[in-house]
Amino acid sequence: MGKKPLTRRQEKAIETKNRIYNAAIDIMDKKGFEKLTIVDISKKANVSVGALYHYFKSKNDILAEIFRKADEYFSTEVISSLNKASVPDQIVEYFDHYAKFNVASGVEMTQQLFNPKIKFFIKKSRPMLTLLQDLIRKGQEKKEIRMDTDPEELARFLFVMARGIVFEWSLHEGRYDLEATMHKYIGILVSTLRS
Amino acid sequence: MGKKPLTRRQEKAIETKNRIYNAAIDIMDKKGFEKLTIVDISKKANVSVGALYHYFKSKNDILAEIFRKADEYFSTEVISSLNKASVPDQIVEYFDHYAKFNVASGVEMTQQLFNPKIKFFIKKSRPMLTLLQDLIRKGQEKKEIRMDTDPEELARFLFVMARGIVFEWSLHEGRYDLEATMHKYIGILVSTLRS
DNA sequence: TTGATAAGCTGAATATATTCAGTGAATGCA
DNA sequence: TGCATTCACTGAATATATTCAGCTTATCAA
User: Fold this and answer.
1) Nearest nucleotide, C1' to the C-alpha of A12?
2) Which partner from A77, A85, A86, B103 sits 20 to 30 angstroms from B139, CA to CA?
3) In this model, does residue A195 exceed pLDDT 70?
4) What is the mean pLDDT of residues A29-48?
5) Positive or negative CA dihedral for B69, B178, B168, A165?
6) Nearest to residue A160, comparing CAs of B181, B2, B37, B98?
7) Across all residues in chain B, what is the average pLDDT?
8) Under CATH, what is the fold of the domain B63-191?
């Protein structure tokens, strides 16, 4: 990788984008999603409204970026913390982490994941998805998981279900225990995958 | 039911609300959700913006009303069209209809179902849910469905999964066959419910 | 009948996201 | 070095949802 040195301009641009991003995170943390306005973000970041739109297509685009980074973080965290012996158990564990992660992110944030404007899940959650696919492939090699379906499809199936579970929880404003529900339901699903 | 006669005022109010509702439906059908604006709706309905807000809490509230009516319609339609002999098969059939219904509604509309602002699913989809619960109860009586979980929870489980499936489809802009996917996945789930 | 009340409704004001025509400075090429 | 080009950035204009103070008139109790 030749690391081409950045021009002064490019350095400043990156710094500006980060300032906008961090201002958004900050406001969100302090006041919640509802109170996150473009004007406030630009004020806090000391840029004009136009500058904000120079770096982000829309307000939702900022959110998408936040989600993307969170997802990246989750993937690297979870990959190093699966302890169970059998792959089916590891899959359950994987979704335990996923539930915990959503709880930690908060209901308000989680609700935004389903905002049709954001389309977060499509390209972005690839790291999470491939991680799960690899797990399933390993399970099939170890004959712990049925072989009649390919890892891609099984992973997709599990994810679709897990998202349904998270959506239900976010709909109910997080008023019940997501981790317990996830554990139970994924447990049922995984039992159908065992060979 | 004593049918108390409406005053002239009340009649007019109902008519106005309907005019607003129909204007919204009309614009949505013709131009899609993106082009649905408050000003256009009020113009088409011949009322002021304020009047619109007198009848609906927000734009999303109009949508919620549309979804509610659609749901009502679905419930009455589907209840009279389950032909299969066994209850598990009827459940699969039920979700076949559900998929078909979403396809008929269109992707754009379906995406809006998941809009966190609308909170459609919470109270509103009761008729659909109770219908499914009754079905499951009947299945348990006929010993076709396992008895270790109550109908409420099984119905909820299936619904959560079905919503995940619909969400995935709407995310992908309806680019694949929802009915086939629903049939397959619900089939897998229902097989775990058989006694 | 009449006056008080409240329902239905108005539209201008407000809040907020998004666009866009321009400005000035950094870059890079001759 | 000089200059054309492009990039980062500005902020006023626009689009849209939502609020609200107040108007008009139907309703109804006395």
Assistant:
1) D8
2) B103
3) yes
4) 95
5) positive
6) B181
7) 91
8) Tetracycline Repressor; domain 2 (1.10.357)
